[in-house]
């Protein structure tokens, strides 16, 4: 069973330099995630959800504030943090078992223990019998199961999921949501899910962190006090979903895309307007 980790984010600020000017991406983020929790993060495009995950996984280190896992400041990537992206990122020339085994490249386990651990995690994600299959022989959902097994095989303290089901059809997505809950409950691991889908966030998360954009800030943390398994058609589920959706209601669509025009600030000539495509 995995060892669940406690994540503490304190006064996190992140900015990029664009054309010589500072562009704030995350501002004053404070968040504590308890061991074994399942936390969903939602927000409009550009609110910094994926940037936040990149900082937690250790892919970027240039920020202000603190990101602590079990009391230790995160510095670089580590085996105690796993991540699953929207694209499964499997190596097409490797079998299922060899793709999963990549997660153990820096492990201290003996060869025999590695084989047993790989086999255990392939079974965990429901792919026993497909050990020798190649990615092109798998469906999209099966490929994501392999990616989840690879992220869990070194038994991390925390698993980060960046839109892991975003590219899948609705039926496969719903099925894998159920499977992810099963894995979370069986492994007892801390999970953080980034998603655009409010229903998915409420279905999976004990808490839903609602972010607002430019710069990315936490608007509210909405608790979801519903037992698992959750019934999507129930009144209680609809009420929880509405509580999250309500946090978006106070922002006009244009404001969610760009910061409001400062009072008294002149509007640029139309010839200087830029449009996202």
TrEMBL record:
List residues of the ABC transporter domain: 7-238
List keywords of the entry alphabetically: ATP-binding, Cell membrane, Membrane, Nucleotide-binding, Transport
Q: Does this entry carry the keyword Zinc-finger?
A: no
Determine if Transmembrane is one of this entry's keywords: no
Q: Mention one GO molecular function.
A: ATP hydrolysis activity
Listed InterPro entries: AAA+_ATPase (IPR003593), ABC_transporter-like_ATP-bd (IPR003439), ABC_transporter-like_CS (IPR017871), ABC_transporter_ATP-bind (IPR050166), P-loop_NTPase (IPR027417)
Signal peptide (from-to) = none
Under the heading SUPFAM superfamilies, the entry gives: P-loop containing nucleoside triphosphate hydrolases (SSF52540)
Family assignment?
Belongs to the ABC transporter superfamily.
Question: Per its record, how is this protein called by name?
Answer: Sulfonate ABC transporter ATP-binding protein
Q: What is the lineage of its organism?
A: Bacteria, Pseudomonadati, Pseudomonadota, Betaproteobacteria, Burkholderiales
């Amino acid at each position: 069973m995995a060892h669940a980790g406690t994540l503490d984010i304190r006064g996190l600020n992140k900015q990029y330099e664009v054309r010589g000017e500072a562009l704030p991406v995350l501002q004053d983020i404070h968040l504590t995630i308890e061991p074994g929790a399942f936390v969903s993060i939602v927000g409009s495009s550009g609110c910094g959800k994926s940037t936040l995950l990149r900082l937690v996984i250790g892919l970027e280190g240039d920020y202000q504030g603190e990101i602590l896992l079990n009391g230790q400041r995160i510095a670089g990537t580590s085996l105690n943090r796993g991540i699953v992206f929207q694209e499964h990122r499997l190596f097409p020339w490797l079998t299922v078992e060899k793709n999963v085994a990549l997660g153990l490249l820096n492990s201290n386990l003996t060869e025999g223990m590695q084989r047993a651990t790989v086999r255990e995690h392939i079974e965990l994600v429901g792919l026993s019998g497909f050990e020798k299959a190649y990615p092109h022989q798998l469906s999209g959902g099966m490929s994501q199961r392999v990616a989840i097994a690879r992220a869990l095989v070194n038994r991390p303290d925390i698993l980060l999921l960046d839109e892991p089901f975003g590219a899948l059809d609705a039926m496969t997505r719903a099925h894998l949501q159920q499977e992810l809950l099963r894995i979370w409950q069986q492994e007892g691991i801390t999970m953080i899910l980034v998603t655009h889908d409010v229903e998915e966030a409420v279905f999976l998360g004990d808490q839903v962190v609602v972010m607002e954009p430019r710069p990315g800030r936490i608007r509210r943390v909405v608790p979801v006090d519903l037992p698992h398994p959750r019934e999507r058609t129930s009144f209680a589920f609809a009420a929880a979903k509405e509580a999250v959706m309500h946090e978006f209601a106070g922002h006009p669509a244009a404001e969610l895309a760009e910061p409001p025009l400062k009072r008294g600030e002149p509007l640029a000539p139309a010839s200087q307007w830029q449009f996202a495509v």
